[in-house]
Design goal:
receptor; Phosphorylase Kinase, domain 1; disordered N terminus; Hepatocyte Growth Factor; kinase; 45 strands; 25% helix; single chain; disordered C terminus; alpha+beta
Length: 811
């Protein structure tokens, strides 16, 4: 037998022996007979044989809220290892009973059923020395139910975490109800730490572990084992260790120390030790010896959610591993008893109703080395710090800017705040100049006006002529100041536009020939031209770009019109839009140069080669939200409204972090700010084109909504809009099939062989309903993209969709 095979089989045999204490009950125990009971007043519990663990009621709140729990009974802290009713504390007078019929039942003083495990009738129960409480069968004493199968936030030695099982952190240090974080071995065998969509318990962004060095894949296994050698490992069914979460390395023994692994309320998974009475250490406290992730402040960062701390607060690591959530200058805790709820401004925000947003009443306070990643609504690459400051002060929507290599502008509420490692960056938070003035500027203006009226009234009593003269002088000064302010505002906007134009580089055609090796490597092609890979010199480095050489139709546009459109494209600035780097306008050569997107197109990801791994369900949900946000910006938030007209997976690109960005919007038909509709020839791609293109109807932003609906169905199902069944070569329209599955109540057919989506059918249904609204035949029935975003995020209810009726009319 080969040495490797022998070692694997030996490890498997040993690992089975290590698991035995959690699965057999032949060890000594104190049986709990039928008819036994505990009450909150009795101050008694069911003990393990050694007395180290106790099962009973623990008073949690001073007003008499009780938790039914397993605790470490021989230490003063009586630390909770497991609880049954963490989300529903019971009052004084409640009772736990192992009934004569063999059922374990928790009731409140009125006799209302609160909790009971799902189990067949037992003959007796036992609290084991492992910390596991079990219900046992009469005939063979086999285990019918055990607390180890339904963990709360803690794992104990000999305990395993099976596929689909999870730890959910408690809400706060003193509140044992389910909180914001979970540690889960998903049914797809991936092991993750997740932020939850609190108060829902569905998983949000994952923040640990990092991907492996090879292939960017996550570690996968069949179970997580806290074995008797005191290591926590992700293993395969054959006992092979895939990934050691915590490795004891021959440290302290179970004879001298208690051990537990707990997902704490701050989102950190920690391995704790506590010295027993016969241990060598005299320091009787729980000590954290290992923890993951290394820095929770920088680990939790996502497009959705507040980050490691609440909104408008920032996270800082103290004592090497424990996060502290703090408010920026001018902000206070939303709830002084719970820092996780974030912060609110302790001043009246800048009022957009006032001219210039009353910017002179505000200032920016420096926060060195504090960063707020993502959620930028505008950024500038070549701004000085003074320009960055002025841009925020003059913008009533700006709550903070991060200044470093770029100038990033943020709206309220602020998210993902943390003290970072980059000392060259700093945050500038906007506050009122006088923090003692907390009334709104609108009210303050009225108050000042009232004082002026009283003074003028007094003067009127003395001399009406003086009042007239005073009024004339006042009006003259006010008009002069208004003209000065308007001139200053126009000058600032002119400087911004000028800088924006200078951000776009004008390339000579020969430069782009050199950068692309005479247009050698094709990245993709579309209706308006071919995209090539290019490399530009950039401060002694190489910068990858995507060079789009436009076809002859676009080259016929007049120079002035082309450059006007380029300025509009360059003026767009959103994290979900591909950034324009520069352009070439040389004779018949019209070229656009974009940032390079290293992960290619969404089409390649969804419909790549057979056998190629598809993006997981959570990644597809994030991509859908990202594309929707990019369309909201194009339709409603940029200075010149843009209708894309060709939304499809080929025009959604992915950067190195899998952030989705919309491309090819620079060739779309542009609408002036005061226009809402336009008529033009049919554009777009078969299968994504809205029916109004074929009916001589006005073209609005709703054509993009239709295309997005088709793309959303493709993201849900990982299928193309139009597929051919090999058996009979019949084309199958995805939209038809999706509506049939929805109306027949068979949504699971859409996501077969996708365990993540199958386990999240509620969100699958929500996304399908949104898509069916988007592809309604009547444009008026389609929601605007801003409402689509709200529905995707779950903040707006999605009603039952109508039959779209027109699936095939535009194919």
């Amino acid at each position: 037998m080969a040495p490797v095979q022998f070692q694997s089989k030996l490890y498997f045999s040993l690992s089975l022996l290590l698991f035995l204490p959690s699965t057999i009950t032949s060890q000594s125990n104190r049986n709990v007979p039928l008819g036994s009971s505990l009450t909150t007043e009795s101050n008694s519990s069911w003990l393990s044989p050694s007395g180290e663990f106790a099962f009973g009621f623990q008073q949690i709140t001073p007003d008499g809220g009780y938790l039914l729990a397993i605790v470490f009974d021989e230490i003063p802290e009586r630390t909770v290892a497991w609880s049954a009713n963490r989300n529903n504390l019971v009052p004084r007078g409640s009772k736990l009973e192992l009934t004569t019929s063999g059922h374990l039942v928790l009731t409140d003083p009125s006799g209302r059923h609160v909790w009971s495990p799902n189990s067949d009738p037992a003959s007796h129960a036992a609290m084991l020395d492992t910390g596991n409480f079990v219900l046992l069968a009469a005939n063979d004493s086999s285990t019918l139910w055990e607390s180890f199968q339904e963990p709360a936030d803690t794992l104990l030695p000999t305990q395993t975490l099976e596929q689909g099982s999870q730890l959910i952190a408690k809400y706060s240090k003193s509140n044992h109800s389910q909180g914001r974080f979970k540690f889960i071995l998903r049914r797809d065998r991936n092991l993750f730490l997740h932020v939850t969509h609190y108060p829902e318990m569905r998983a949000g962004i994952s923040y640990w572990p990092p991907t492996t060095a090879v292939g960017g894949q996550y570690y996968t296994g069949d179970r997580v084992v806290f074995n008797q050698s005191l290591s926590l490992d992700l293993i395969l069914n054959n006992g092979t260790v895939v990934f050691p979460v915590f490795n004891s390395n021959g440290g302290s023994s179970s004879r001298d120390f208690y051990h537990r692994v707990t997902l704490d309320y701050d989102g950190v998974l920690r391995y704790y030790e506590y010295p027993k009475s016969n241990g060598q250490s005299s320091n009787k406290v729980w000590s954290s010896v290992y923890f993951k992730p290394p820095n929770i402040c920088t680990a939790v960062t996502g497009d959705m959610g507040s980050g490691a701390c609440g909104y408008n607060s920032y996270c800082e690591l103290v004592n090497d591993q424990y996060p502290k959530c703090s408010c920026p200058p001018g902000y206070i805790l939303k709830d002084s008893s719970d820092e996780s709820k974030g912060c609110i401004p302790d001043f009246a925000p800048q009022d957009c109703r006032l001219q210039e947003g009353n910017s002179d009443a505000f200032e920016l306070v420096d926060m060195p080395a504090v960063d707020w990643p993502l959620y930028d609504y505008e950024s500038f690459e070549f701004y000085t710090e003074d320009m960055c400051r002025q841009s925020c002060l003059s913008d009533c929507q700006c709550a903070l800017v991060v200044y470093g290599k770029f100038c990033w502008k943020k709206k309220s509420p602020l998210s993902n705040g943390r003290v970072g490692d980059d000392k060259t960056e700093k945050s500038l938070v906007k506050v009122r100049r006088s923090n003692s003035t907390t009334s709104s500027p609108h009210v303050e203006k009225k108050r000042k006006g009232l004082v002026v009226i009283i003074i003028i009234g007094s003067v009127l009593l003395a001399s009406s002529a003086f009042v007239i003269l005073l009024s004339a002088m006042f009006l003259s000064m006010k008009k002069k100041k208004k003209n000065q302010d308007s001139a200053a505002s126009r000058a600032f906007l002119d400087r911004q536009n000028d800088l924006l134009s200078r951000n776009l580089r004008s390339f000579a055609y020969c430069e782009l020939e050199l950068a692309t090796e005479r247009f050698k490597e094709v990245l993709g092609s579309g209706a308006s031209g071919i995209v090539y890979r290019g490399v530009l010199p950039n401060n002694n480095q190489r910068r990858l770009v995507a060079v789009k050489r436009l076809d002859n139709t676009v080259s016929e546009i007049k120079d002035q019109e082309f450059e006007t459109e380029v300025r509009v494209i360059g003026g767009t600035n959103h994290k979900n839009l591909v950034k324009l780097v520069g352009f070439c306008n040389e004779g018949l050569h019209r070229v656009l140069v974009y940032e390079f997107m290293s992960n290619g197109s969404l089409a390649g990801l969804l419909f790549g080669e057979e056998g190629q791994s598809r993006p997981n369900w959570y990644t597809r949900m994030e991509i859908a939200c990202a594309v929707a946000r990019g369309l909201v910006y194009l339709h409603e938030e940029c200075s010149t409204q843009i209708i894309h007209c060709d939304i499809k997976p080929q025009n959604v690109l992915l950067d190195e972090s899998m952030m989705a960005k919309i491309s090819d919007f620079g060739i779309a038909k542009l609408l002036k700010a005061n226009q809402t509709r336009t008529m033009t020839k049919i554009r777009g791609t078969r299968g994504y084109v809205a029916p109004e293109w074929f009916r001589n109807m006005s073209i609005t932003t709703k054509v993009d909504v239709y295309s997005f609906g088709v793309l959303l169905l493709e993201l849900v199902c990982c299928r193309s809009k139009l597929e051919t069944e090999a058996a009979n070569e019949v084309e199958v329209f995805l939209a038809n099939w999706a509506y049939e599955c929805y109306s027949d109540g068979q949504l699971r057919k859409l996501v077969e062989n996708d365990d993540e989506a199958m386990n999240d059918v509620e969100n699958v249904e929500r996304f399908v309903k949104i898509a069916l609204w988007c592809i309604q035949d009547d444009p008026c029935l389609r929601p605007a993209m801003k409402k689509v975003v709200h529905m995707l995020e779950g903040s707006v209810h999605v009603p039952t969709p109508l039959d779209p009726e027109s699936f095939i009319s535009n194919i």
